[in-house]
Each structure stands twice: as C-alpha cells, then as structure tokens.
C-alpha cells in the first residue's frame, strides 16, 4: 500500500477557516512544522506546497497516492488542534489501495472538512 | 500532451453555488449532458463521478492528467452558462505538460472559481 504524499499548503493565512491573518510564520508554515515534528506512517511523504488554491478554507492539506487512489483535499484545519487527527486520517488512507477509507474510520475533521476529492487516474 | 480526464460530478444539487434544489435531472447530471453535447478536445475524456465532495460549491468538475500534471477542482458552475468556458479551460489544460495554464490564458470561471488544486504525483 502506502507511497502516499501528504501535501501541506505553507502559504495559508487562515486557521480553521477564520479571517486571514498577518502573523508570521503563517498558519500554513506552522502546520508544516507541526507535522514535521511527528513521525509519519511508513510510506507517507510530507510535501510542502505553495498554495493548494483553497485559500478561503485554510489551513489546507491534500492526500494523494498514485494513479489508483482517490485524492482528497481537506481544509479549515488548525495546526494547534488537528495534527493528531490528520496523522490518524493519513494512516488510514495509506492502508488502502484506492484511498477510500470507510466513513466511520475517518477522523471527524476528515468527515466534516472535506474540500474536494478527485477520482483515481486509472 | 493530452490524456486528460474531465470529471463531472453528476450528483451536484446546486447551480453556481446557489441553494440546493430538488429538480430532476440534477444540475450535475445536466452539466454532464451539456458537456456530452459538445466535441471535446483531442485526448480529453469525460468521466461522470458520483460526488466530488465539493457539495457546497456545485456544480463541480475536476481536471486531471497523469502523474506529471497538477489536478484542479472548479465549482459554482452553471450548466446553462459555463460550458464554453469549461471547454476553453480544458483545452488549455490539455495543451500543457504540467497542468499549469498561464493565469491570463485561463477562462474567468477558472481564475475565480477554483476549489482546490493538488500537485503532480511525480
């Protein structure tokens, strides 16, 4: 399974869907740092990205994993509150072959804060 | 270039970000039918999808094109107003190798109504 990429928008200026802020480092950069401070599941690579084009839904992340998995974008995330849930969700995603995690096995932030999903390329 | 997939959410209940409606066929199904009625650019395949998980931003579509292209999701689309713009945008996307169409070459609905984008898998 695995070979999964967890993309993190480092330019997000919002936290949990709030108003854009001028703080530095930006919430997106803080999200990346918070995730870097944790061990990732085997086969999962963290990738900083400048803008996932979900600016009104920051902080935002994307999960992708090859041509046979659905890709997902999640938003309204908070680097101070949601890192454990993100890691739980990525672990479940990485354990699938198609990216489809059963609804009940998804952390609440993944169930409620999906921005979009894209079908597999194959 | 090409080998691009234009995924269309057929279950979207909204048009152009409005209130969800009960009309049948659903706006998403009408979007699919409207696109099917047009010739697509060479190398572009239309794919109906049940839910792109962008329900509050319907009608929604996604563009993807192999492991080396960025993928994009667009929303707040109207099957009666935006088909020509979508075809223009898909044509430009299909002509790239990485999915990155210069800003000025994107139709206005693609500039203003991006829901999210996901980086290439390679």
Verbal overview:
- Chains A, B: Pfam families: DUF1636.
- Chains A, B: InterPro entries: DUF1636, Thioredoxin-like_sf.
- The structure is a homodimer of 122-residue chains.
- Chain A has 3 helices and 5 strands; from the N terminus they run E-H-E-E-E-H-H-E.
- Chain A has a single domain, classed as Glutaredoxin.
- The first copy, chain A, is of the alpha+beta class.
- Chain A is globular, with a radius of gyration of 13 Å.
Biggest interface and its residues per chain? A-B, 26 and 26 residues
Range of helix content of chain A: 10-25%
Tally of individual helices of chain A: 3
Main sheet makeup of chain A: 5 strands, mixed
Task: Compute the separation of the termini of chain A in Å.
Answer: 16 Å
CATH topology-level fold name of chain A: Glutaredoxin
Mean pLDDT over all positions of chain A? 95
Low-confidence stretches of chain A: none
Radius of gyration of chain A equals 13 Å
**How is the quaternary structure best described?**
homodimer
Secondary structure: number of strands of chain A: 5
* Count of distinct structural domains of chain A: 1
Q: Write out the CATH superfamily name of chain A.
A: Glutaredoxin
Strand order of the largest sheet of chain A: 2-1-3-4-5
Pfam families (chains A, B): DUF1636
Organism (chains A, B): Actibacterium naphthalenivorans
Protein name (chains A, B): Putative metal-binding protein
InterPro entries (chains A, B): DUF1636, Thioredoxin-like_sf
């Amino acid at each position: 399974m695995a070979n999964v990429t967890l993309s993190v928008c480092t330019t997000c200026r919002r936290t949990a869907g709030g108003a854009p802020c001028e703080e530095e480092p930006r919430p997106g950069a803080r999200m990346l740092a918070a995730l870097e401070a944790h061990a990732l599941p085997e086969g999962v690579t963290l990738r900083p990205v400048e803008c996932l084009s979900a600016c009104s839904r920051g902080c935002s992340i994307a999960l992708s994993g090859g041509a046979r998995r659905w890709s997902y974008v999640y938003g309204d995330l908070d680097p101070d509150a949601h890192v454990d849930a993100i890691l739980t969700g990525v672990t479940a995603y990485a354990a699938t072959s198609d990216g489809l995690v059963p609804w009940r096995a998804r952390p609440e932030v993944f169930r409620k804060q999906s921005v979009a999903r894209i079908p597999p390329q194959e």
